[in-house]
Protein 1
Amino acid sequence: MKKLLIMLLIASIGAVSCNKETCENPFYCDWDTPFEVPPFDLIKFEHFKPAYLKGMEEQMAEVNTIINNTEEPTFDNTIRAMQFTGQLLEKVQRAMGPLSGANTNDSIQALQRDMSPLFSKHRDDISLNEKLFERVKSVYENRDKFNLTPEESKLLEDEYLGFIRSGIGLSPEDKDKLRQLNSEQSLLSLKFGQNLLAETNGFTLVIDNEQDLSGLPEGVRAQAAAAAKAKDMEGKWLFTLQNPSYIPFMTYADNRELREKIFRGYMMRGNNGNENDNNQILADIIRLRVEKAKLLGYESHADYVLERNMAKEPETVLNFLAQIWEAALPVAKAEAAAQQELIDREGGKFKLEPWDWFYYTEKIRKEKYDLSDEETKPYFSAKNVTDGMFYVANRLYGLEFSERNDIPLYHPDVKTFEVKRAGKHVGILMIDYHPRASKRGGAWCSGIRPQRLDEKGKFVTPLVSMVTNFTPPSGDTPSLLTPDEASTLFHEFGHALHNLLSNTEYTSGVSRDFVELPSQIMEHWVFEPEVLKVYAKHYQTGDVIPDALIEKIEKAGKFNAGFTTVEYLAASSLDMEYHSLTEPTEINIGEFEKNAMDKYGLIKEIIPRYRSTYFNHIIGGYSAGYYSYIWCEQLDADAFKAFKETGDIFNSEVAARFENEILARKGSKDELEMWIAFRGREPGIEALLENRGFLNK
Ligand SMILES: [Zn+2]
C-alpha cells in the first residue's frame, strides 16, 4: 500500500484561492514565491497543525466524492481522480519535510508524534477502504476498455496490487488473522531494535593501563579519554561498540587480546542468552512473515517482497549473489593469505582470526599505498566538488546551475540553485552541507515537490533538496571533503538528477533495487582523471591534483574488496535464505546461520557484515532486500560501461538514452524494460566484477 500512500501525500500543487482573512495561514493561500517554493519565511509553527487537520478532512471529502460517484468506474473518474486528492495536505508536507529532517526542534518533534496516529488512521481510511477498492478493482478488470497509455497501465496495476497486498481481498476471518500477524510482528520488531540498542550500549571496554593503547592514533585516545571522563572514570579510556569507537580500535590497537575482547562483544550482540536475547524474536518474526505471505497467496516472504522489485523472484537474486560470491571468495582468501604472510614475517606465531583482519589490512594498506585523507583533502573543497558535479551534469545533460539568493530558505545555511537547460527553467536544487543540532545525521536527497502534470495538464517543475553532514569551514579553511564525502556528494546529486530530469504524467515510487542506479552511477565520474582535472584544485594554490595522487586514489579504492564483498554477500545471502522459507517452521537461529554460511563456504576469518541477532536491516525495510545495494551496483557499473565503451565518458548519445529511458521515466515503467531500452540487453555482472577488481587477477 506504500505506493498509494505516497501518491496520496504527493498530490499536485494547485492554486488554493482564499480571502485575506484565511490568508493568515500561508497554507491556505497561493504561494507567490519564485517557483512556488514554500514561503518558509512566512510559515510559523502554529500554522502546521490546523492545516494538517483541514488537509486530511479535505482529502477524505475528495475521496468520498470519488466513491459516491454514481457513474461507472473509469480510469479518469477513479485512478486519475485519486492522484489529485489531498493537495492541501501535500502542501503542508512540502514545508514540513525539510524542517523535520534538517531544521527540527522539540515542538516540531512533538507535533509529529501527535500527528502520527492521526496520519496512520487517515491512510488506513483510504487504503483499506472497501468501497474505493471496489471501484479500483472494476477499473482493473475492465482495463482493456480504457485505452490507457503505458504509464496509466502501470499506475493502475500498482494501485490495484497495493490494495491486494494490504489484504483487502481476504475473508473477514483472514483479515483478522492478518491484523493479528501485523501487530505481533510490529511488537517483535520494536523489541528487536530495543534489545540491540541495549546490547550495543551494554558493552564497554575500559582501559586503565596506557600501554594497552599502543598503536592507537592520538585523536582516538583523546576521544576514549573524554568518553571515560563523561562516565566519571577520569584518567581511563573507554571504548564502545559504536562504529566511531569500535572501528579505530579494531584497526589500530596492537593489543591482540583486547581486539578479540571487543570483537566478541560486537559479534555476540543479541546472542548472550540474557533478557536482551534476539534469537527467539527473530525466529518468531521469520515464522510470522511466512504465515503472512501464505495468507496473501505467496510462496514465501521473499516472493511477496520481490514482486514489487526489479529482480521479481528469489531465484534470480540467489543466482546473482552466488555468481559474485564465486568471484569474490578467492580474492578474500588471497587477502587472508597476504595477512598471514605478514603475521609470519613479523614472527607472530598464530593463525589469522576475524579480530585481526582490520588491523593487518591497515598495515598492508599503509605499506602499499600510504594514502591519507590529509593528503587529498586540500584538493576537495566542498565548493570545488560541487563545481565538479555541476560540470558533469552539464557535459552529460546540458544542465546549467546558477545560485539564487531570492528564494525562501528553511535554514540560512542552505544554498539554492536554479537549474536551466537551453535557457529554460528545469527546477530548483537546494544543498545543505554542514551538520547542526537541528539536523539528523547522514546524507539524503528528497523531492520536496516532485515533477508531474497538474490537474489541467500543466508541467509542474521539481523542487529538490540535498542534505549532507560534511565538515564545516573553520577560520580561513573552507570545508574540505574526504574522498568518501566527495563520492557521497556525487551520489546524492545523482538522486537529485533523477528528480530534476523526471518527465512523467503522474508521480510514482521507484523500486528499492533500482533507485540507487541513478545515484551510484554518478560516483563513477567523481574520480575519473578527466573530471578530477577540472575540479580537484588545491584550495590555497589553485594547483590541479597531481597524477600520482590520482593513481593512488584509484588503486586504494579497490583494496580489500574481497573482504568487503564477501562480508556483505554473506549477510545478503543470509537474509535471502531466511526469507525464502516456504513453511512457517520453528528455526534455531544459530544453527540456521551456521548451516547457511557453511553451505556458501564462508571462511572462518570473516563473519557476515551483520550476524542474525543484530541484523537490523532485515527487521526494518530491507527484509529480502539487503541485496539491493549490489544489485544496483551491477546496473550502475554496466551503465557506466556503456559510456566507457564509446571511448568518451560524456558520450552524448549514451547520456541522452540514459536520460530518456531511465531518469525521465522515474517509476512509470517496469524497471527491466527501462533497462533494456537503455542498454539493448539484460544487465550483466562483468562490469561490477571489473569495478571491484575481480577480473584479470
Ligand atoms: Zn542513495
Protein 2
Amino acid sequence: MGSAAAQIPTSFGHELRACRRCRLVKTYDQFRESGCENCPFFNMDADHERVVDCTTPNFTGDSKLRIHIYISTVRG
Ligand SMILES: [Zn+2]
C-alpha cells in the first residue's frame, strides 16, 4: 500500500495495453482487431487470447525506465 497507482481507464474493451515485445500501446480492442503492427507474428487478430498473452496492462513502470534512459543518454 501507499504506492501511487497510475490512473488508467480500465473499462473492458478499452483497456490500454502495451505489446510485450515492442511496447506499442493501444487499446485491447485495437490489438484484437488489428494485432501489433510491429509484431504480426503474434497473430493477435487471429486468436484473441493471444492479445492477453502478448500484451500487458502494466507498462507504466517500463515507460518510466525508458524515459530515464533517454534522459541519461541526452545528458551523457
Ligand atoms: Zn509489438
